[in-house]
């Protein structure tokens, strides 16, 4: 799911994937990013299996080859491998560390013989992976410097009748009640307002871009993700996410709000994120299924 994920607090601070377009970060940052991606998939990940099933509804035949574009830690790759047991899944990412994680996970799930990892910077060009039947780009297309060029490459890489699925997160994940019992109510809303002004999670409506690249839209759908009941790791997910955005918000949020955020992130507080019983986990995504005609 990355090319790389902009959970890292660089320039535009997008949601889902962003280490920018290939600019290096330290090992610590990459480890934190991988943890966040895995927690996102664990807590909100039921939608991945639903989306993989949706891919099957639009694929003309049982796919034999699937490319995961900006695969990140490979949660989407694994969901596709589970859904299509006869397919080879090609996980493409710029990060060698992310691809190593995919190898380990594929081995643990017993699909290593069908998982191929390819290290590639998609800003440089589409890698030589051969023709594919399905391409999957989850929160990664907006990370590419020239997505229209990549869409043209993907059109050419797909077999006739092949399917491209693009998934984007529409809003930042939400965790907190309006009144935390500390500080001013509405902390999360104020955080999101600042992040949205900085273009976190910014992506266009991909429909016209897909059509210009020669794709025919088979379906566009919105997905509401509401983890109910709240999973056991919701607190860890909230902590990982809010820790990452804290770096950007420091100096922008009022001092009272920063103090409240620091309090939530201090694990030994009785009402820290890891201990609160009132967390929720909500999000939304839009998906486009587009076919090469």
Automatic annotation (TrEMBL):
GO terms for biological process: methylation. Residues 9-26 have a biased composition (Basic residues). One of its GO terms (molecular function) is methyltransferase activity. The keyword Cell cycle does not apply. Residues 1-29 are annotated as: Disordered. Residues 66-162 form the Methyltransferase domain. Keywords: Methyltransferase, Transferase. It comes from the Bacteria. Pfam families: Methyltransf_25. PANTHER family: METHYLTRANSFERASE (PTHR43591). This is Class I SAM-dependent methyltransferase. It comes from Rhodococcus spelaei.
């Amino acid at each position: 799911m990355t090319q790389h994920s902009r959970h890292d607090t660089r320039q535009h601070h997008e949601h889902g994937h962003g280490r920018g377009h290939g600019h290096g970060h330290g090992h610590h940052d990459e480890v934190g990013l991988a943890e966040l991606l895995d927690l996102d998939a664990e807590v909100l990940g039921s939608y991945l299996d639903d989306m993989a099933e949706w891919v099957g509804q639009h694929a003309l035949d049982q796919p034999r080859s699937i490319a995961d574009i900006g695969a990140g830690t490979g949660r989407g790759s694994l969901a596709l491998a589970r859904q299509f047991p006869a397919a080879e899944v090609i996980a493409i990412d710029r990060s060698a560390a992310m691809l190593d994680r995919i190898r380990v996970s594929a081995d643990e799930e017993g699909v290593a013989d069908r998982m191929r990892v390819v290290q590639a910077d998609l800003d440089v060009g589409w890698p030589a992976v051969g023709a594919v039947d399905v391409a999957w780009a989850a929160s990664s297309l907006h990370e590419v410097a020239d997505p229209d060029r990549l869409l043209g490459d993907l059109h050419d890489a797909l077999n006739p009748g092949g399917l491209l699925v693009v998934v984007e997160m529409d809003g930042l994940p939400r965790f907190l009640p309006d009144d935390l019992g500390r500080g001013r109510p509405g902390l999360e809303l104020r955080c999101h307002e600042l992040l949205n002004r900085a273009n976190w999670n910014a992506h266009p409506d991909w429909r016209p871009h897909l059509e210009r690249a020669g794709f025919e839209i088979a379906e566009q759908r919105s997905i509401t993700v509401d983890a109910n009941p709240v999973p056991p790791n919701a607190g860890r997910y909230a902590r990982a996410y809010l820790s990452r955005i804290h770096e950007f918000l420091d100096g922008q949020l009022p001092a009272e709000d920063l103090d409240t955020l620091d309090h939530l992130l201090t694990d030994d507080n009785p009402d820290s994120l890891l201990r609160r019983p009132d967390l929720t986990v909500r999000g939304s995504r839009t998906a486009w299924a587009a076919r090469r005609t």
